[in-house]
Every structure is written in structure tokens, then in C-alpha cells.
TrEMBL record:
Gene name of the record: tcuA
NCBIfam families xrefs: CobZ_N-term (TIGR02485), PRK08274.1 (NF006130)
Pfam family, one: FAD_binding_2
Keyword terms: FAD, Flavoprotein, Oxidoreductase
One GO MF term: oxidoreductase activity
Descriptive protein name: FAD-dependent tricarballylate dehydrogenase TcuA
Chloroplast listed as a keyword: no
Cofactor(s) for this UniProt protein: FAD
Organism: Azospira restricta
Keyword Oxidoreductase tagged: yes
Length: 475
């Protein structure tokens, strides 16, 4: 007997960024009818993906836009290092291996890549950059989805889900109930939900709420509504709610959608101090693309959740210039005054750092031998004295890109309930990235996870919808 109330579509995709679009395209290519619900209006579509620039890719030999080789084991070791081992190796290696097979498919859907980059970013070997950035990628995917017949609805936030015994039944947009044979959740984390951030970070010893001082680098629409819905439905979760992709951004950055241009990239070329003029971490620990995402959390742990990146004239031209000009002064005392730092403490910090520098052969493209001795915290690479005016200072605050608390999945991208995979509910992108990113980050890996698991989730959802349709037809 046929279904008396047939589902609206085969596959429902909830979300509008990279992972959601990859899922929708894969499901449609597999022959499924697809409806994509994007919470944002059309002019804000794409979630955080519009602010991205590149994809970290495994490859065993030089390729079109990638130099050298970046084999699986090296990629894995890089990920292992930045996460401190807080990662699911099976899922991580799956993402790594599949990253080598994504670019051809991406090109077929209109994504273009630019020639490999050289310079201090150290990414020409590991990361493929999108021509036109993430916004161009998102637009290309939407064009392709429309051409393939994917139904797209904007300003359609899903506020609740119907799930029974681990099986997706329906999603609700306001008073509208939308059914589907299978569903992919790819609606991002909860970084735009200030109340949830306060809950996750709590109060510090000074009675401050650190999260109140965070900028949200991406979309304002990632409120974590579906994460809460899945919690209420008894789904299995993974990750620390206080962990996130959190970088140091200019303290003058907007509250939302500041994106990459608000990042301060001169940290490794100078020192970083807190509001008391004191250093608090090794600025030269590793190459910037591997360690830039620790600095937001480090600044968040400082009094007032503020820091200051300090350089001198020798650093100018060696980093991507920020969108806001820094404070500039002929003396350290004058710079302290402009940044509202206590002059004596700040000048003492700089002088102690200068005296501890052991300058060898400075080279910002390698882990060089310029380091400090007898200083805590040490600066292990690129340690040059701050002695050449003018001096520059950039105020910092934490900028969250996406949170790592997410849904536990398996290699089929299936959501889990009490340890059992759902037969028709799949997860991709930031909603499951915590399986691989328990902490830390390395440039481009978020897009790797979203692209790989978006493709897996879409293909699996189409297969699940086909099976359910066949089962109903046979009933």
C-alpha cells in the first residue's frame, strides 16, 4: 500500500553554507528531490562560508594550485598537534583522505581556484584558495543547485524537529510542517547565541562574563536552535561548549560578520601583552596558520578579555595588513599612552624581552633560531628586539568563528541516539566538527570537514530516501 501522506521531498537540507550546499548537490546528483532551508535572507545566505578563503587538501604530488606534496600522515600529524590529541582519528583520517578528491567535484559546480600563494602564510603546499573567496564559492554552489533543480527557501529558520526512535519525521518553520524521507542538518554552531556563550564560559574570578566581550566573526544566524532541538530529542553529543575556532581580532571589529579582515596577523612578529602590559604566551610557538586560532582563547582568559599586539618598524610589510590602522608612536612610552597601558610596566616588559632575545638568522618562512633565553614565557622563534621606531600597537579581543560542541556522527555522517546511528538523519559541517576538532585549529580544515562530510551526508541521505521509498512501495 502506498503512503497516504507522502513526504514533501526525498531529502531536506537544513542550513545554507558550504556543508549544506555540498549535501544538497550530492543528494540531487544521486537523483533525490531536495529542499534546502536557509535561515538567513538571500542577501545574507551562506553562513560563515562566505568569509572563508581556502580548503586544506591532502595530495601526494604537486597539483594544479598546490606545490610539493602534503601526504595523509603529515596532515594527520598537523591535526593531531593542534588538537592536542582531542580528535577522532578514524573520522579525521576520513576527512583527510577525502580532501584529495574534492576539488574536481567542486570545479564541476563552478568553483574556481587561484594560483598557489607564496610568502609567510606557508600555505602554498597545503591549502587551495578559492578565486573570489568564500562568497564566490557559495554563489557558485547556489547557481549549480538552482540549475539542478534543488528547491531553495530563504528566511526559513527551522525552530523544531520531529524525531521518533532516532528517525527524522519532520521539521517546523513556524506553523509549517515539512516532511522528508531523509534529512541533513548543517545549520552551524551556537556562536551567535550570546546567552549560550555566557552559559558555556561562565563567570571568571573577577565576576566578569568573558563571553560578553566576544566578537562573532561570522553570521548572526547561528543561534544553535537545532543543536538544542537535538539535545531535547536525546541525540548523542560530543565536545566542550567552551571550545571554538576563536581568534584574536581587532578590538574595534563589528559584533557580527567582521570576517577575516578583522584578524590581526602580526602576533608572531612582535609581542602580545595584556592590559597590565605583561606578556602571557609564546608568540613564536609555530607557523601562524597552525597557531592563529589559539589566540582568541588566550585573550579571552586575560583580564577584561583584551590584549595588545606590539611590533616595531622591522615587522612592517611582513604580514597581511589589518583593516584598521594601529596606534603608532615614536617611543614606547607614547605608545603605552595611546593604548591606555601603564607605561612603566609596559616599557619594563619590552626591555626585558629585548634583553632576552638571542638573534640568529631571522627567517619568517621557517622555524628559525631567533629565540629568547631566561624569559617566561619564552618566545621560541622569530624573536627580534623591539628597538626600531615607529612602534605599532593593535588592540585585541576574542573573535569566535564557530563553536565545537556538536552532534556525534560516524563515517556515514549519521546522527546517533544512545549509541545507535539514525537511519535517515545525517549531520555535516560545524554541527559535527567537534568530532574532529576537540580543540585548536589549522587553517582551512573547517572547510575540509564541511566539504567532505557535506558530500557524505548528501549521498547517504539520498540512499536512505531511496530505500524508504522502495520500502513504502513494497508495503
Amino acid at each position: 500500500m502506498s503512503d497516504q501522506n507522502p513526504p514533501t521531498v526525498d531529502v531536506l537540507v537544513i542550513g545554507g553554507g558550504n556543508a549544506a550546499l555540498c549535501a544538497a548537490l550530492m543528494a540531487r546528483e544521486a537523483g533525490a528531490s531536495v529542499l534546502l532551508l536557509e535561515a538567513a535572507p538571500r542577501d545574507c545566505r551562506g553562513g560563515n562560508s562566505g568569509h572563508t578563503r581556502n580548503l586544506r587538501c591532502m595530495h601526494d604530488a604537486p597539483q594544479d594550485v598546490l606545490t610539493g606534496a602534503y601526504p595523509e600522515e603529515e596532515f594527520w600529524q598537523d591535526l593531531l598537534k593542534v588538537t592536542g590529541g582531542n580528535t577522532d582519528e578514524q573520522l579525521a583520517r576520513l576527512a583527510i583522505r577525502e580532501s584529495s578528491r574534492c576539488r574536481g567535484w567542486m570545479r564541476r559546480h563552478g568553483v574556481h581556484f587561484q594560483p598557489s600563494l607564496s610568502g609567510t602564510l606557508q600555505l602554498s603546499r597545503t591549502n587551495a584558495f578559492f578565486m573570489g573567496g568564500g562568497k564566490a564559492l557559495v554563489n557558485a554552489y547556489y547557481r549549480s543547485a538552482e540549475c539542478l533543480g534543488v528547491q531553495i527557501r530563504y528566511a526559513a529558520p527551522v525552530d523544531r524537529l520531529e524525531i521518533s526512535d532516532g528517525r527524522f519525521r519532520a521539521a517546523w518553520v513556524g506553523d509549517e510542517r515539512i516532511t522528508a524521507r531523509a534529512c541533513v542538518l548543517a545549520a552551524g554552531g551556537f556562536e551567535s547565541n550570546r546567552e549560550w556563550l555566557r552559559e558555556a564560559w561562565g563567570q571568571n574570578a573577577d565576576g566578569e562574563w568573558p563571553a560578553d566581550n566576544f566578537a562573532i566573526r561570522g553570521t548572526r544566524f547561528n543561534q544553535g536552535v537545532l543543536l538544542k532541538a537535538m539535545m531535547n530529542a536525546g541525540a548523542d553529543f560530543i565536545g566542550d561548549p567552551s571550545q571554538s575556532h576563536c581568534v584574536a581580532v581587532d578590538a574595534r571589529a563589528p559584533l557580527y560578520d567582521g570576517g577575516i579582515c578583522t584578524r590581526i596577523d602580526c602576533v608572531s612578529l612582535g609581542i602580545v601583552v595584556n592590559k597590565f602590559g605583561q606578556r602571557f604566551y609564546d608568540e613564536g610557538e609555530d607557523f601562524w596558520p597552525k597557531r592563529y586560532a589559539i589566540w582568541g582563547r588566550l585573550v579571552a582568559q586575560q583580564p577584561g578579555q583584551v590584549g595588545y599586539s606590539i611590533i616595531d618598524a622591522k615587522a612592517v610589510g611582513r604580514f597581511m595588513p589589518p583593516v584598521f590602522p594601529g596606534a603608532q608612536a615614536a617611543t614606547l612610552e607614547e605608545l603605552a599612552g595611546q593604548l591606555a597601558l601603564e607605561p612603566q610596566s609596559f616599557v619594563r616588559t619590552v626591555r626585558e624581552y629585548n634583553a632576552a632575545c638571542r638573534v640568529g638568522s631571522f627567517d619568517h618562512t621557517v622555524l628559525d633560531d631567533c629565540h629568547t633565553e631566561g624569559l617566561a614565557p619564552a618566545k621560541t622563534h622569530w624573536a627580534l628586539p623591539l628597538d626600531t621606531p615607529p612602534y605599532y600597537g593593535y588592540p585585541l579581543k576574542p573573535g569566535i568563528t564557530f563553536t565545537y560542541l556538536g552532534l556525534k556522527v560516524d563515517e556515514a555522517a549519521a546522527a546517533h541516539f544512545a549509541g545507535r546511528p539514525s537511519p535517515n538523519l545525517f549531520v555535516a559541517g560545524e554541527m559535527m566538527a567537534g568530532n574532529i576538532l576537540g580543540q585548536g585549529y589549522t587553517a582551512g580544515v573547517g572547510m575540509t570537514i564541511g566539504t567532505v562530510f557535506g558530500r557524505i551526508a548528501g549521498a547517504r541521505a539520498a540512499a536512505a530516501a531511496c530505500k524508504q521509498g522502495a520500502d513504502h512501495a513494497a508495503a
